[in-house]
Design a protein that fits this description.
Elements: E1 2-4, E2 11-13, E3 20-25, E4 32-38, E5 41-47, E6 55-59, E7 64-71, E8 77-84, E9 89-95, E10 101-104, E11 111-116, E12 122-127, E13 132-138, E14 143-147, E15 152-155, E16 169-171
Antiparallel strand pairs: 1-2, 3-4, 4-5, 5-6, 7-8, 8-9, 9-10, 11-12, 12-13, 13-16, 14-15
């Protein structure tokens, strides 16, 4: 992992042999979130400021890869596209405070990009032709995704700690 000074064009090594990509910056705490690839495994890592060490957050089984990360501007949610060796794709949403993860399935095509709105209230996905295909408003749990082309997806979560806001992912106007 290297830092580049745009004014001078000089770079400096922050972490040698980090093997990370798909970086997402947290404006909330200046940390970096990334996917580390090593020996065929993908691991989400958090790199706290000043970016000298990595902390493993979650490793995926062989044959699964997460990519196209984005972090909500408020720093609460991490979202990424998950691809499996079977060819299936889904969207994963992590609560960065608790580590809880939600799998949002039902995408008709490969997800090639994900992004949060500036107010952290909407997640949108893009497919390989660059078109935004789905967007969800984050309001409360349980997670309700609505109708995809091939199914209805409703996810529920029985545990909602009182100090956490509840959310509901519902289709947003695109």
């Amino acid at each position: 992992l290297c830092a580049l000074d745009p004014a001078t064009g000089r770079s400096r090594t922050l972490i040698k042999d980090a093997r990370v990509g798909d970086l997402a910056f947290s404006a909330a705490d200046s940390s970096l979130w990334a996917v580390r690839h090593l020996n065929g495994y993908s691991t989400i890592v958090r790199i706290p400021h000043p970016w000298r060490e990595m902390n493993q957050v979650f490793s995926f089984p062989y044959g699964r890869d997460v990519y196209d990360l984005d972090l909500s501007p408020d720093g609460r949610w991490l979202v990424g596209s998950m691809g499996e060796v079977s060819g299936q794709h889904s969207l994963r949403l992590w609560d960065v405070n608790t580590g809880e993860v939600r799998s949002l399935t039902g995408h008709p095509v490969t997800i090639t990009g994900v992004a949060f709105s500036p107010d952290s209230a909407t997640v949108a996905t893009r497919d390989r032709d660059g078109m935004v295909r789905q967007a969800w408003r984050i309001e409360r749990w349980p997670v309700t995704i609505g109708r995809a082309l091939d199914n209805d997806v409703v996810l529920t979560e029985p545990h909602v700690a009182p100090h956490h806001a509840t959310i509901d992912l519902v289709p947003a106007a695109i």
